[in-house]
Amino acid sequence: MSEIDHQPDASAPESVSEAPQSAASVSRRHLMMGAAMLAVAGTAYARMPKRRFPDINDAKFEALFPKQFAGWRTLPSSELILPPEGDLTAKLYQHILTRTYVNSDGDGIMFLVAYNSEQVNNVQVHRPEICYAASGFTIQASRPYDLKVGKNVVPARVVRAERVSRFENIVYWTRIADDFPQTWTQQRIAMTKANLEGFYADGLLVRASAIDNDEGKSVAMLSGFLQDLAAHSPEAMRYLVFRA
User: Quick one: 165 exposed, middle or buried, by C-beta within 10 A (0-12, 13-18, 19+)?
Assistant: First the structure.
């Protein structure tokens, strides 16, 4: 047998002694990685938006809006254009209040309020231009409009929609937390702003409309109606709807 056959393997003991060190090193790396992942997860959770606005029950919400005020009274039925029904609508709105008001002159106003105490990025308030178009109306015009309510000015929009020979003039606004976005882009920005500040915004749509070929006359009547509504409503309603 040669000397090579009798020569001891000097590397064997070193391999045996290095194995525990290698395992320990791997375990330490895993612990450090796990700790880092937990820290990231904790930071992400801490930065998740939180609920700020409480839910409102149906009875309390409806009671915020008077059924009779300043010469206006409600009718038992309504022909309002509503958001499409389905699961998405249920997520969009906790409350949808619809009424038709009339005065002694025979003028009629269709009124809608939709509200959700928590808005998320993939579920947002629908703007009327979308709902009316989906109901077969042609949107003839949509423009910004500043609605004066007491000492406040609400950034709203005026929309004129037509279907066959029906001309409907609409004054509406949306509120996202404390902002009143007049465009879809502004609405997205308002939601992002709220999320960055650490909370989910609530979302509100207020819409009043009248059927008339005379847009100027309708808008003046709708503005006066909304101003009277604010003046004859409880403080909680004025804060919810106008932030006044």
Answer: exposed
Q: Indicate whether 229 and 117 sit together in one domain.
A: yes
Q: How many domains does the chain contain in total?
A: 2
Quote the domain boundaries for residue 14.
3-47
- State the 10-residue block means of pLDDT for the chain, 244 residues long: 46 48 60 55 47 79 96 81 55 84 95 85 74 92 96 96 93 95 92 85 93 96 98 95 90
- Phi and psi at 171, nearest 5°, equal -115, 125
**Whole-number pLDDT of residue 5:** 46
Q: Do 62 and 96 fall within a single domain? A: yes
- Contact status, residue 128 vs residue 207, Cβ threshold 8 Å: yes
Query: Dihedral of the CA atoms 187, 122, 52, 226 (nearest 10)?
Result: 40
Query: Last residue of some domain: 47, 65, 80?
Result: 47
CATH code, domain with 128: 3.40.1000
What's the rounded Cα separation, in Å, for the pair 48 and 38? Answer: 15
